[in-house]
Amino acid sequence: ERLKMTFDARAEKSTNMMSARLLRLMATKRTNLCVAGDLRSSAAVLRLADAVGPYICVFKTHVDALDDFSGQFGPQLCEIAKTHNFLIMEDRKFGDIGNTVSLQYGAGNFSVAAWADLVTVHALPGPGIIDGLVSCLETHRAHLKDRACFIVAEMSCKDALTTASYRSEAMKLAETRVDFVAGVVSQSASGIPSPGLIQLTPGVRAGVNGTPQSDSDGLGQQYNSPRHVVLERGADVAVVGRGVTEAPDSAEAAKFYRDLLWEAYLERVSE
Ligand code: 5FU
């Protein structure tokens, strides 16, 4: 069964080069933590990436929330990723027709395809959205082998419209396009069709130093503990944003989350 398999064993079953690469990275580096660097200045995001780098498998960005994005951001983040051995995910949540996402992925100010190993996409437009992203890479004859996407199958926020039937259609889309789909963004493991697909789960925060675990942020986000998302909800990679960025020491916090998440993973695959 998928959840009982080790990341190494699942990499063997993987049909996508990027999911295999990420699963092996997680197994080697012994981390299933993704930090969401949702800060407003490029320098602050780069500083955060460098500080948490040793403890993470993926660094997740929202570059359209930066006040001062410039063309140097991507290459600088790639340098840091190389130093600390993590992948970069731009959480763009593409959601348009193939032609439009192809433009948004490869062009514009952000040129996401040039620096982000992974991107997120909504399932809403159907298979055409995957075709759009792939055609962008084909047109530029670049990165065809070192790029992949995660399909947002289910969102963490309260009253999200990602119903059970939407979720199951999104899983089908993931299954039919494993060539470019490395995984799914989801709050549970049910229906994930292949052991090679990676489940990324946001909405993770722990009580630190005796403070109680908060279960929301006042704007609809819903939080679960690191242990709960890995053991009860099947998270392979857990996303922690403000749990790290609002901590007094982000490296310490990343280490704290990494330890809790990895311990939960070991417990899940043991026996
Ligand atoms: F697809 C999703 C989702 O369903 N929930 C999310 O929270 C993505 N996210 C992202 O994870 C969101 O855009 C933030 O970047 C991050 C969670 O940040 P937090 O500070 O840990 O709440």
From TrEMBL:
<dbReference type="GO" id="GO:0044205">
    <property type="term" value="P:'de novo' UMP biosynthetic process"/>
</dbReference>
<feature type="domain" description="Orotidine 5'-phosphate decarboxylase">
    <location>
        <begin position="32"/>
        <end position="257"/>
    </location>
</feature>
<comment type="pathway">
    <text>Pyrimidine metabolism; UMP biosynthesis via de novo pathway; UMP from orotate: step 2/2.</text>
</comment>
<protein>
    <recommendedName>
        <fullName>Uridine 5'-monophosphate synthase</fullName>
        <ecNumber>2.4.2.10</ecNumber>
        <ecNumber>4.1.1.23</ecNumber>
    </recommendedName>
</protein>
<keyword id="KW-0511">Multifunctional enzyme</keyword>
<comment type="similarity">
    <text>In the N-terminal section; belongs to the purine/pyrimidine phosphoribosyltransferase family.</text>
</comment>
<feature type="binding site">
    <location>
        <position position="156"/>
    </location>
    <ligand>
        <name>substrate</name>
    </ligand>
</feature>
<feature type="binding site">
    <location>
        <position position="241"/>
    </location>
    <ligand>
        <name>substrate</name>
    </ligand>
</feature>
<dbReference type="GO" id="GO:0006207">
    <property type="term" value="P:'de novo' pyrimidine nucleobase biosynthetic process"/>
</dbReference>
<comment type="similarity">
    <text>In the C-terminal section; belongs to the OMP decarboxylase family.</text>
</comment>
<keyword id="KW-0328">Glycosyltransferase</keyword>
<dbReference type="GO" id="GO:0004588">
    <property type="term" value="F:orotate phosphoribosyltransferase activity"/>
</dbReference>
<feature type="active site" description="For OMPdecase activity">
    <location>
        <position position="91"/>
    </location>
</feature>
<feature type="binding site">
    <location>
        <position position="38"/>
    </location>
    <ligand>
        <name>substrate</name>
    </ligand>
</feature>
<dbReference type="GO" id="GO:0004590">
    <property type="term" value="F:orotidine-5'-phosphate decarboxylase activity"/>
</dbReference>
<feature type="binding site">
    <location>
        <position position="242"/>
    </location>
    <ligand>
        <name>substrate</name>
    </ligand>
</feature>
<keyword id="KW-0456">Lyase</keyword>
<feature type="active site" description="For OMPdecase activity">
    <location>
        <position position="96"/>
    </location>
</feature>
<feature type="binding site">
    <location>
        <position position="221"/>
    </location>
    <ligand>
        <name>substrate</name>
    </ligand>
</feature>
<keyword id="KW-0210">Decarboxylase</keyword>
<keyword id="KW-0808">Transferase</keyword>
<keyword id="KW-0665">Pyrimidine biosynthesis</keyword>
<feature type="binding site">
    <location>
        <position position="205"/>
    </location>
    <ligand>
        <name>substrate</name>
    </ligand>
</feature>
<feature type="active site" description="For OMPdecase activity">
    <location>
        <position position="93"/>
    </location>
</feature>
<feature type="binding site">
    <location>
        <position position="60"/>
    </location>
    <ligand>
        <name>substrate</name>
    </ligand>
</feature>
<comment type="pathway">
    <text>Pyrimidine metabolism; UMP biosynthesis via de novo pathway; UMP from orotate: step 1/2.</text>
</comment>
